């Protein structure tokens, strides 16, 4: 295994994703025979069979499935090392920090303004932040953390706040002063791309009730989400700060007494020794503590 090359792992992943040697070779920009030879050499080095091959079918063996999972981590680590090394060699290297649009980027701009080191802010989509940390596109991420473990990352919670229900103004639940997660049973809720089952349960309130999630339209940002709500296609659970910033006549917001709070946190690769990250985290905590939050819940 010590002799396995990064190039061979990239070849393996192309075949594993395509499950077709011809398509994988085309994707890699090479002929099929050299690719087949490279995979056979990799199998000999590892002493295992990675693929089941017939004239019509290619599939991963149990060993191949393990390598498919583990090689992603290895390749991300190599890519991250190269990207961060190149950034460090720049004349004035900037700390790259990413967040999705909305409250997180507003807070991030304030932190960057107060931070002594150069900071490059990169806006990312829902669920993209941890991937950007793992492959080196970002050094720090601002992300919502719903109590799920962030494997391979260190996390510093900035604040927690209540969530509210966003409802169409004419919805049957809009007349109530307060709601509970059980009230959302059977109600469609928006779906975010790349969201996990745990994410979908959290954003629908079913993490509290344990009930099934009723999926609604797919959305990509908070503006699209609120349009979906206003059209009566779904209801949504949102951080209270988003409701405060996004007031509109065709959507009403109601407190949800038992909803799991929304927590905003910083994350960075576990064990990172870059002193700029430590300085950024300290600045972020100081800035966050100085900002008022609607109905904020102490992070501890």
From TrEMBL:
This is LysR family transcriptional regulator. One of its GO terms (cellular component) is protein-DNA complex. Keywords: DNA-binding, Transcription, Transcription regulation. One of its GO terms (molecular function) is DNA binding. It comes from Amycolatopsis vancoresmycina DSM 44592. Residues 4-61 form the HTH lysR-type domain. Belongs to the LysR transcriptional regulatory family. It comes from the Bacteria. InterPro entries: LysR_HTH_N (IPR000847), LysR_subst-bd (IPR005119), WH-like_DNA-bd_sf (IPR036388), WH_DNA-bd_sf (IPR036390).
């Amino acid at each position: 295994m010590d002799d396995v090359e990064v190039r061979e792992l990239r070849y393996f992943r192309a075949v594993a994703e395509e499950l077709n040697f011809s398509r994988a070779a085309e994707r890699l920009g090479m002929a099929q025979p050299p690719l087949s030879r490279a995979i056979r050499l990799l199998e000999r080095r590892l002493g295992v069979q990675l693929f089941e091959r017939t004239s019509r079918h290619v599939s991963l063996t149990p060993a191949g499935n393990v390598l498919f999972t583990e090689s992603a981590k290895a390749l991300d680590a190599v890519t991250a090392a190269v990207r961060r090394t190149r950034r460090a060699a720049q004349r004035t290297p900037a700390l790259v920090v990413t967040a999705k649009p909305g409250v997180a980027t507003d807070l991030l701009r304030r932190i960057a303004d107060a931070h002594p080191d150069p900071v490059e802010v990169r806006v990312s989509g829902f669920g993209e932040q941890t991937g950007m940390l793992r492959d080196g596109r970002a050094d720090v991420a601002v992300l919502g953390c719903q109590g799920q473990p962030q494997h391979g990352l260190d996390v510093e919670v900035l604040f927690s706040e209540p969530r509210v229900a966003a409802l169409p103004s004419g919805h049957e639940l809009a007349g109530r002063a307060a709601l509970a997660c059980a009230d959302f049973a059977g109600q469609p809720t928006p779906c975010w791309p790349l969201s996990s089952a745990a994410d979908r349960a959290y954003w629908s309130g079913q993490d509290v009730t344990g009930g099934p999630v009723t999926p609604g339209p797919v959305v990509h940002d908070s503006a699209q989400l609120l349009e979906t709500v206003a059209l009566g296609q779904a209801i949504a659970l949102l951080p209270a700060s988003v409701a405060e910033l996004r007031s509109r006549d065709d959507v009403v917001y109601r407190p949800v007494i038992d909803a799991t709070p929304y927590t905003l946190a910083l994350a960075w690769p576990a064990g990172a020794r870059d002193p700029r990250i430590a300085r950024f985290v300290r600045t972020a905590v100081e800035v966050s503590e100085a900002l008022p939050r609607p109905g904020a819940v102490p992070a501890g």
